[in-house]
UniProtKB/TrEMBL annotation, chain A:
Main location: membrane
Species of origin: Ohtaekwangia kribbensis
Keyword entries, A-Z: Cell membrane, Membrane, NAD, Oxidoreductase, Quinone, Translocase, Transmembrane, Transmembrane helix, Transport
Protein task: NDH-1 shuttles electrons from NADH, via FMN and iron-sulfur (Fe-S) centers, to quinones in the respiratory chain. The immediate electron acceptor for the enzyme in this species is believed to be a menaquinone. Couples the redox reaction to proton translocation (for every two electrons transferred, four hydrogen ions are translocated across the cytoplasmic membrane), and thus conserves the redox energy in a proton gradient.
Membrane topology: Multi-pass membrane protein
Listed EC numbers: 7.1.1.-
The protein's name in its UniProt record: NADH-quinone oxidoreductase subunit K
Automatic annotation (TrEMBL), chain B:
Entry-linked InterPro entries: NADH_UbQ/plastoQ_OxRdtase_su6, Nuo/plastoQ_OxRdtase_6_NuoJ
Protein name: NADH-quinone oxidoreductase subunit J
Gene3D superfamilies linked: NADH-ubiquinone/plastoquinone oxidoreductase chain 6, subunit NuoJ
Keyword terms: Cell membrane, Membrane, NAD, Quinone, Transmembrane, Transmembrane helix
Subcellular location, record wording: Cell membrane
Function, as annotated: NDH-1 shuttles electrons from NADH, via FMN and iron-sulfur (Fe-S) centers, to quinones in the respiratory chain. Couples the redox reaction to proton translocation (for every two electrons transferred, four hydrogen ions are translocated across the cytoplasmic membrane), and thus conserves the redox energy in a proton gradient.
Membrane topology: Multi-pass membrane protein
Reaction catalyzed: a quinone + NADH + 5 H(+)(in) = a quinol + NAD(+) + 4 H(+)(out)
Annotated EC: 7.1.1.-
Enzyme class: translocase
Length: 101, 171, 648
């Protein structure tokens, strides 16, 4: 059987990759992709830690709810990105600076 | 090292490479496709971790729902039709530093902590997992389940309202 | 004095007010009339003065030989002391009032002819009116302070009138000189006023006359008052301004510098005679007789007809002052009275000569100095009227019997004879000097008349000289008539007439032998003069320049003060200015330093703090540049640091 730690290593790597995407990409959709990646990393951890109480399955249950929240986040986030694009004619998050001092 | 283990490491490598290429890729559309690859391999890993229900949900929602939405978003935000949407990078060195440091920290953390007792640190199959999940959703997790439904409804309406093209509202 | 006020009616007071104020009205009216209508002044000004003179005659008759008229109002209060201003009209003042208004009227009348066509006609008549008003103020003032005020106003109008022809440099210089020398005397007057105030606490003449005991410093105080008289009446140290003042118009010389203003000094002495101590009177007599002698000697050799008259005036004033010093103010006032008429007559006569010769010169286009008697001669044929008037007035001046001057001079000689008893004292020197003066008076008068009117015509031979208009001859005629003995008394050899007896209460003053000696003396003088001056003139630089008094003053006063002025100027420029400049530079330097400190340190601190906070603000703001991904990066780095801190 596969050791649980390998799941955790992969989760850590995916999390860091998603964070890297969020920080470096100058495009709102890519940022959203990074967020999805990070959510999946946490999902992977939840599934892995489900092994602490295999019979209870609460880890998998949390993973399901996280997926639901991710769906909501993706839908609303994309809607906002579209709206921002209509309004500012750009999808670069750095160029939307109306709330700057 | 049996077949399942080989599959696991294969998918793990695919997911890791996809994530890495997502970091490096500059085209948003390619990024979306790479993310699909990554998510599908994650779904395979879920299956190998005996979480079939989560894996199916992953495939349905991510590959079937979110990615389609994202690809539509890519199309709608492309300035010049037909030309690939190329993304520039920013904060490259700072971001690299932060992520490498965080990854190092996490690895150090994972290796220094002992989460599982000896003998239980291997993936175990849980019997009647789908049954248990179904009962759980209807009994123990019924309140989060209903709330999640309302949340989805609200997100649906909100997304529709925000993305609607009635310009007079002007946000 | 209750009976004083009942004696005088309201009509009298109105008349007095008219007499005093009409000259002032004339001043205002003349000053207001525009240049184009200046001819109006020649009617209004004499008219005002005529009314004033008529009023003065009424007032004189009302006051003469009666109780003095006193009226006063509160002038101002200083500290707790009330200073009043008012009128004190006694016999002397009434006489002076009459003389001033009468002669002023005649001079106004005469001036309408003499000054006809002058550019500054309105100014001239305005100042004449102002002078008359001020002079009446001196005459009527009941307190020494008020008198001092008018004393200064008289000096001012004299200054204006001497310098009337402003285009003449000599006139301007003479006016300045007269003003400055008068100021010297007036400074003494002021000191005398302070002394009197300090010791008696009053300026009121009536109150002062009631003080019987001699207060300390009284000699000094009275001598200080006499210093004012020295300035105003051109006595010994300060006599040089009067000959120079002849640069003014001749009627002005007649009114101010012969008849009235210079006599104001004598009037003041007579008015406050009770203040003078015997010692002060000795000094006064000495100075008076010295002045009389000096001026008479100088008058002998002058060539300018007006300067002869000016020195003669000084000489006669000296005699009056000497008479006061000899304790006979009545004699001095008598001489003042007669002198005012005949000297004004002489001046106006000289004015006629100057005037007609000027006009003749303009017609004939010939120019020479008409005031220089060396250019004149034989004018009796062309100016018979002037000749007659001049001779009458000249006889009065010389003291020929049957003329007023003889009587008044007699009174002075008698007064000096009576002075200090019969014992031997230096009064005999004074008496001898007085006789010498009267002898010299005859000689210079004879010389003047002879040179101008007798002999052959010199440079005037070819000139078309005619008598002046009647408006100029009239005043001269009146003054000539007033120069005969009838003015004093019906008796031509006794001066104790209506005037003297009123002013001098003690009877039995007259000494017959003096009159006889005086008459013989005069006849001797006339004969000497006749033989001396029939053909030649004497010339003496010492006397011509009045003993070089001016040069002496220049040497001992003007030169040192000039040097002092140069030195102080140098001192001022070099040291005081240098000091001021140095302090100014120092201040500027300090200011620059302070300014630099302010800018560099104070402002620098403030600006430094401001730019520091701005830099901090910019630095912190750069974290919030609206860049979401940067926020995330920083947040992650913070979390990493936090984790490291937690874990290790």
């Amino acid at each position: 059987m596969v050791p649980v730690y390998h799941f955790l290593w992969l989760g850590a790597f995916l999390f860091c990759a998603g964070l890297m995407v969020i920080i470096t990409k100058r495009n709102a959709i890519m940022v959203l992709l990074g967020i999805e990646l990070m959510l999946n990393a946490s999902n992977l951890n939840l599934v892995a830690f489900n092994q602490l109480h295999p019979a209870h399955l609460s880890g998998q249950m949390f993973a399901l709810f996280v997926i639901i929240v991710a769906v909501c986040e993706a839908a609303v986030g994309l809607a906002i990105v579209l709206r921002v694009y209509q309004h500012y004619q750009t999808s670069v998050p750095d160029e939307v600076t109306d709330l700057k001092d | 090292m049996n077949f399942v283990t080989i599959l696991f490491y294969f998918f793990e490598a695919v997911a890791a490479l996809a994530a890495l290429s997502l970091v490096l890729v500059r085209n948003v559309f390619y990024g979306a496709l790479i993310l699909v690859v990554c998510l599908l391999s994650l779904a395979a890993i879920y299956v190998l971790a005996f979480a079939e229900f989560v894996a199916v949900t992953q495939i349905l929602i991510y590959a079937g729902g979110i990615l389609v939405v994202i690809i539509f978003g890519v199309m709608l935000t492309a300035k010049i039709a037909g030309k690939p949407l190329v993304v520039k990078h920013t904060n490259v060195w700072g971001g690299t530093l932060a992520c490498v440091a965080l990854f190092t920290l996490l690895l150090y953390f994972l290796s220094s902590q002992k989460f599982f007792e000896d003998g239980k640190d291997k993936m175990q199959a849980a019997d009647t997992a789908i049954n248990t999940i179904g009962f759980g959703l209807m009994t123990e997790f019924v309140l989060p389940f209903e709330v999640a439904g309302i949340l989805l409804l609200a997100a649906l309406i909100g997304a529709a309202v925000i993305a609607s093209s009635i310009k007079s509202r002007n946000v | 004095m209750p009976e004083t006020q009942t004696h005088y009616t309201t009509f009298f007071e109105v008349c007095l007010l008219l007499v005093v104020l009409l000259p002032l009205v004339s001043f205002v009216v003349s000053g207001r009339i525009p240049q184009r209508y200046s001819w109006v002044v020649t009617f209004t000004a004499p008219l005002f003065l005529l009314i004033s003179a008529i009023g003065a005659i009424y007032i004189f008759t009302a006051v003469w030989h009666h109780q003095p008229y006193i009226a006063r109002v509160n002038w101002f209060t200083i500290g707790g002391t009330l200073v009043s201003a008012g009128v004190y009209l006694n016999d002397i003042a009434a006489l002076m009032l009459l003389v001033v208004t009468f002669i002023s009227f005649l001079v106004h009348l005469y001036s309408t002819g003499y000054m006809a066509g002058d550019a500054g006609l309105t100014r001239y008549f305005a100042m004449l009116g102002f002078f008359t008003f001020s002079m009446l103020g001196i005459v009527l003032a009941d307190s020494l302070l008020l008198m001092f005020v008018f004393w200064e106003l008289v000096g001012f109008s004299s200054y204006m009138l001497i310098g009337h022809w402003t285009e003449k440099d000599e006139a301007a210089a003479a006016a300045k000189k007269a003003f400055l020398l008068n100021r010297i005397g007036d400074a003494g007057f002021l000191v005398g006023l302070m002394l009197i105030w300090a010791y008696t606490g009053t300026f009121d003449i009536v109150q002062l006359s009631d003080i019987n005991e001699v207060f300390s410093w009284q000699t000094a105080a009275s001598l200080c008052l006499f210093a004012g008289v020295i300035g105003k009446s051109a006595q010994f140290p300060l006599l040089t301004w009067l000959p120079d003042a002849m640069e003014g118009p001749t009627p002005v010389s007649a009114l101010i510098h012969a008849a009235t203003m210079v006599a104001a000094g004598v009037f003041l002495l007579a008015r406050v005679y009770f203040l003078f101590t015997p010692a002060a009177l000795d000094v006064i007599a000495g100075i008076g007789i010295l002045t009389a002698l000096m001026a008479a000697l100088s008058a002998l050799v002058q060539f300018d007809i007006k300067k002869i008259l000016a020195y003669s005036t000084i000489s006669q004033l000296g005699l009056m002052v000497a008479a006061i010093g000899a304790g006979a103010p009545a004699a001095a006032i008598l001489h003042l009275f007669t002198h005012a008429f005949f000297k004004a007559g002489l001046f106006l006569g000289a004015g006629i000569i100057i005037h007609v010769l000027h006009q003749a010169q303009q017609q004939a286009h010939e120019h020479f100095n008409v005031q220089d008697i060396r250019n004149l001669g034989g004018l009796r044929k062309k100016l018979p009227f002037t000749f007659c008037a001049f001779v009458i007035c000249g006889c009065a001046l010389a003291g020929i019997p049957f003329f007023s001057g003889f009587l008044s001079k007699d009174a002075i000689l008698t007064a000096i004879t009576h002075w200090k008893g019969d014992g031997f004292s230096w009064k005999w020197i004074v008496l001898a000097s007085a006789f010498i003066v009267s002898f010299l008076t005859v000689i210079y008068t004879f010389r003047m008349i002879w040179t101008v009117f007798m002999g052959e015509e010199k440079r005037t031979a070819s000139l078309p000289v005619v008598e002046p208009p009647v408006i100029m001859r009239g005043p001269v005629a009146i003054l000539a008539v007033c120069s005969v003995w009838l003015l004093v008394d019906i008796n031509p050899v006794n001066f104790e007439g209506w005037l003297f007896n009123t002013l001098h209460a003690d009877g039995n003053f007259h000494i017959g032998i003096i009159s006889i000696v005086s008459a013989l003396w005069v006849i001797l003088a006339v004969s000497v003069a006749y033989f001396m001056f029939r053909s030649k003139t004497i010339h003496d630089d010492l006397l011509l320049n009045n003993f070089y008094l001016d040069k002496l003053y220049f040497k001992i006063v003007e030169n040192p003060s000039w040097r002092l002025a140069v030195f102080t100027d140098y001192f001022d420029r070099r040291w005081i200015d240098g000091f001021i400049h140095a302090s100014a530079y120092a201040q500027v330097t300090v200011s620059h330093l302070v300014g630099w400190f302010d800018r560099a340190i104070v402002d620098g601190t403030v600006n430094g703090i401001a730019s520091l906070s701005r830099g901090v603000g910019n630095f912190t703001r750069s974290f919030q540049g609206g860049k979401i991904q940067s926020y995330i990066l920083w947040a992650i780095l913070a979390i990493i640091i936090f984790l490291i801190w937690i874990l290790f």
